[in-house]
Amino acid sequence: MEDDVRDAGPARVVFGTGTADRVREEAERLGATRVLLLSTPSQARTVRRLREILNPLPVAEFGGAALHTPVEVTERALEVLRGHGADCLVAVGGGSAIGLSKALSVRTGLPQLVLPTTYAGSEATPVLGETEHGRKTTRSAPEILPDTVVYDVELTLTLPVAVSVTSAVNALAHAVEALYAPEAGPESDRRALEAVARIARALPAVTARPSDPEARADLLQAARLAGTCLGAVGMGLHHKLCHTLGGAFGMPHAATHTVVLPHAMAYNASAAPDAMACIARALGADGSAPAGVYDLVAGVGGPTSLRGLGMAEADLARAAELAVAQPYPNPRDPTREGVEALLIDAWHGRRPD
Ligand code: NAD
């Protein structure tokens, strides 16, 4: 059997229901005495609760985390952090709050405790994507990885169904691309396929019963597995395209992943037949893996076209050009014409074969 040794996953993970109640003791384990609480604007209630649980550690709050981690937002938060002499970051929310925590930590060296409330998976990766002047750049370093992750299923119960769907497909995308990554190995394959199977099972259950803690826990575990895949191996064309569409065209992160994934898979299918066969099996799909993902999304009422997300048809050619401007590993060579054809299919929302 091949060896598969990687540095992936956070230093400490607490997973369960009601685990947010332990956040003060977890922060103290990291040496916190002055906590800066980070969140997105819609998380005010959860922030209030955490403030009480963490009492008396919080010295300041910054609720302005935003998609794609804009550098100007990080700079404003940095002023708050320095103004209050914070010595630990506690972020609650999705990839936006966790991205801000990473951006602050990389600039200050402060420890990070994060409580994920979506399925984006950023908590499990040493990767930070930031946007400045309409361009998204990504860096990776071991110290970017959050020190402690507290998953509390209860915090996910309020995630609206539409966001749950797109966020879960964002997680699915990590697992799918991990299966055809050049660094893929037996351990990342195992985790990725388990994530695919769990998402295919748990997502319809969550959309049918959004307040069911069992279904939510299943989906959160799947997202965690998918996040560790994202942290362990490089991503391909699908992620590159979504970064381009988000960074240069302001497209919403998770919804764009949801629309593009079946089409990026269809582009790669002929060059990664084994991965696609495994994905189709894990999805329980009768037909191809790309069609299986498209049907899963359509079946839970998720977005299926870039047109529906407000992308201008006139921008597709430029997006294709940007997405192939620099080489990166992908099973099939990303050509400008091929990627533009893929984007046209995604714009119309055509079901792949
Ligand atoms: P997000 O963090 O912006 O959350 C989406 C929306 O849902 C926000 O309005 C948020 O306030 C709200 N929300 C979150 N949790 C909620 C809850 N439980 N109840 C009610 N509302 C809730 O978006 P996201 O999709 O989680 O993350 C996307 C961002 O994360 C992007 O910037 C993306 O680039 C980044 N990301 C980074 C990595 C990485 O490894 N670096 C991985 C995945 C995503």
From TrEMBL:
Ranges where the Alcohol dehydrogenase iron-type/glycerol dehydrogenase GldA domain occurs: 10-152
Alphabetized InterPro entries for the sequence: ADH_Fe/GldA (IPR001670), ADH_Fe_C (IPR056798), Alcohol_dehydrogenase_Fe (IPR039697), MAR (IPR034786)
GO molecular function, one term: alcohol dehydrogenase (NAD+) activity
Domain Fe-containing alcohol dehydrogenase-like C-terminal: from-to ranges: 165-346
Keywords tagged on the record: NAD, Oxidoreductase
Pfam families linked: ADH_Fe_C, Fe-ADH
PANTHER family xrefs: ALCOHOL DEHYDROGENASE, ALCOHOL DEHYDROGENASE 4
Protein family according to the UniProt entry: Belongs to the iron-containing alcohol dehydrogenase family.
Annotated protein name in UniProt: Alcohol dehydrogenase class IV
Organism phylogeny: Bacteria, Bacillati, Actinomycetota, Actinomycetes, Streptosporangiales
